[in-house]
Amino acid sequence: MQRGRLVLLGSLLWLTAFGCRTSDFVARANPTATRTKPPTVRPTFTRVPPTQPPTLTPPPPPTPRPPTPTRRPTARPVPTRVPVPPTPAPPPPTADPDAGWYYRRVFKGCYTSESPNTRIEGTVYENGLKKNGVIVRLSHGEHFEALIPDFITGVDPTDHKHIAPERQGMYRLSPAEGGYMDGNWWVFVIDENGNPLSKGQYIKTHDGPGCNIAIVDFVH
């Protein structure tokens, strides 16, 4: 048994030796087939001297941004207000020349008579109605004595038409019946005692065409 093991070990050793020799023989017979292991090249390191750390330059300060323009509110045009002139004060009332008198004068104008007559005539009214029996006087001044007989409205006996209905409340004073006369006259109303009941109305007549017939009413 021991012997068998030795034989087997010897066989193995012989085979190993034979194999190695066979390899050498093959290598020599075919040199190109031999692989040559390239030599190991070690890297060469170049020593770099340490560099100085770069000087850090501080960055320039940031450029300030221009301020954002503030948008102003659009001003609305203010309408120009034209000053209104103050209302002028009303003029003081004109004094009433007939204030305080019982009858008020109403002068209706003067015109040229077609026939040569010089007259002052008119109508007396009481509360809007024609009134008979009122005395009207013609004088050369206000509230002076009569130049011709006074006239009683509507019923004067010297007026041949005094009974006519259309003559109610009317008077007619003629300083120059049948002709033109230049003169200055005042006509007014009086009571039975001769006291004036109205302010006198001034009339200027002419001795030719112009003012020959004057119309003056008296109203209460």
What does this structure look like?
Helix content is 13%, strand content 24%. The mean pLDDT is 81. The longest helix is centred in the first third of the chain and has 28 residues, at 2-29. It is rod-shaped, with a radius of gyration of 77 Å. Strands 1, 2, 3, 6 and 9 form a 5-stranded mixed beta sheet that branches. With 220 residues, the protein is α+β, with helices and mostly antiparallel strands.
Summarize this entry quickly:
This protein is an alpha+beta fold. Helix content is 13%, strand content 24%. Strands 1, 2, 3, 6 and 9 form a 5-stranded mixed β-sheet that branches.
Terminal Cα separation, in Å? 191 Å
- The low-pLDDT segments are none
Radius of gyration: 77 Å
Number of strands: 9
Overall average pLDDT: 81
Shape: rod-shaped
Beta-strand portion reads 15-25%
Order of helices and strands: HEEEEEEEEE
Number of helices: 1
Biggest pleated sheet: 5 strands, mixed
> Which range best describes the helical content: under 10%, 10-25%, 25-40%, 40-55%, 55-70% or over 70%?
10-25%
The class by helix and strand makeup works out as alpha+beta
Key attributes of the depicted protein:
about 220 residues; about 15% helix; 1 helix; 9 strands; four-stranded antiparallel sheet; alpha+beta; single chain; five-stranded mixed sheet
